[in-house]
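Customer escalation, tier 2.

The customer says the design service returned an amino acid string that "doesn't look like it belongs to this structure." They asked us to rerun it and document both sides in this ticket. The original structure tokens are below, unchanged.
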């Protein structure tokens, strides 16, 4: 009886991991690697973001190691949906990419760790343990960028909101926040619809938002849209 209790205790203490990657060779290799580490248990694997969302619901893993670039549903959207289901989900984004946009998208979606696929076994294992314990961890190659992101987020707001935008772009964003459509903006500012569309696209790029709704929220939080 004591032996069974000890075995149950050991099982409960394991970190249960869900692996998500669309490359079977890499995924299988990582599964073997992690499965060989004491205290780790790979409970499921998925080949795309949609499978990941279902697997997360079914298995309730402690940590999800998530690729970004995948078919059907990418890792950022899968992360967003998993976190919506379970705000405490521990997700580590594991990817080849280290560009700023991928970092910010992963952070906004709710990822608590970000490692490059070139990371060592020790780095990956450390990240999994940290996130399983409620921590947040980013690879050394990305630490400086993440620090800059938080520094910008905590810096005092400038007198002019969104200084990265041109005066015309801020004017258009103000109208967007006020609920104006592109044709209405074109009419108000005496611009062609195509010019307005180009400005709106550039505004979304500079603000790192995916759609009009996100832009409106951001603009109104900055005090725009009170026409």
């Amino acid at each position: 009886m004591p032996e069974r209790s000890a075995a149950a205790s050991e099982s409960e203490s394991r970190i249960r991991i869900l692996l998500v990657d669309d490359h079977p060779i890499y995924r299988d290799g990582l599964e073997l690697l992690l499965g060989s580490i004491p205290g780790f248990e790979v409970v499921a694997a998925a080949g795309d973001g949609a499978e990941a969302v279902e697997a997360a619901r079914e298995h309730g893993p402690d940590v999800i190691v998530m690729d970004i670039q995948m078919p059907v549903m990418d890792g950022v959207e899968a992360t967003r949906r998993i976190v919506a289901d379970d705000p405490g989900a521990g997700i580590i984004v594991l990817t080849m990419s280290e560009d700023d946009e991928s970092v910010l998208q992963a952070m906004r979606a709710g990822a608590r760790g970000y490692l490059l696929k070139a990371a060592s076994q020790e780095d990956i294992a450390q990240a999994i343990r940290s996130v399983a314990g409620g921590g947040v961890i980013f690879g050394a190659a990305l630490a400086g960028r993440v620090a800059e992101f938080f520094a910008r987020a905590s810096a005092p707001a400038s007198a002019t909101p969104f200084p990265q935008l041109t005066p015309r772009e801020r004017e258009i964003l103000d109208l967007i926040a006020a609920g104006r459509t592109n044709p209405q903006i074109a009419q108000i500012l005496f611009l062609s619809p195509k010019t307005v569309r180009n400005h709106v696209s550039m505004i979304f790029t500079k603000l790192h938002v995916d759609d009009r709704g996100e832009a409106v929220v951001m603009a109104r939080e900055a005090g725009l849209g009170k026409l």
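Tier 2 assessment: The sequence is consistent with the input. Residues 161 and 222 are 6 Å apart (CA to CA). The domain at 167-221 is CATH 1.10.10.10 (Arc Repressor Mutant, subunit A). Sent an explanation to the customer and offered a walkthrough call.
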